[in-house]
Amino acid sequence: MLEILIYLFENYPHVELAPDRDALALKLTAAGFNGDEIDHALDWFSDLSTLNSAEYPASLVHSPATRFYAELEQDRLDTESQGLLIFLEQVGILNPLQREWVIDRVLALDEDEITPDKIKWIALMVLWSQNPNQDYLLLEDMLFNDGNNLSIH
User: Fold this and answer.
1) pTM to 2 decimal places
2) Looking at CB atoms within 10 Å, which of 25, 41, 74, 79 has the fewest?
């Protein structure tokens, strides 16, 4: 499913400017993607625009609290992925509220294995969906220039 999300993200970085759901589904089918995955990806993609209205307290943006992961989150996010989220917070790419949005989208992702590369993509999608005019050069550099050639499998 992440392949579909990356395709959508690259072609429609502004969620609200994407064609309607039926037109998008036709384009994705024509691009060779599977119907069930398309439906789930379109739900995931459209939910990006609702993150601001999610029930997170506004004070979370500046929270100094330490994040502890619930068992379900630990099952989906291995230690390396949790460390990446901490790093993205420490260097100022994510604030605590954005971290929660990324975790929300990770948990909504229908993938068995969540790798740090997938976390990077999800973080970039979440950030761009919230502020498409912001420059996320460090995160993009981590995605495209880490010497490993991105693998999303």
Assistant:
1) 0.79
2) 79
- Per-residue tokens: 15: 């969620």
How far apart CA 128 and CA 45 sit, in angstroms, is 12
Position 148 pLDDT exceeds 50: no
> Which amino acid type is present at position 17?
L
Per-residue H/E/C for the chain: CHHHHHHHHHHCCCHHHCCCHHHHHHHHHHCCCCHHHHHHHHHHHHHHHHHHHCCCCHHHHHCCCCCCCCHHHHHHCCHHHHHHHHHHHHCCCCCHHHHHHHHHHHHHCCCCCCCHHHHHHHHHHHHHHHCCCCCCHHHHHHHHCCCCCCCCC
The count of other CB atoms within 10 Å of the CB of residue 32 is: 7
Q: Which two tokens stand for residue 58?
A: 């506004």
Q: Give tens-digit pLDDT for 34-58.
A: 888 999 998 888 887 777 666 777 7
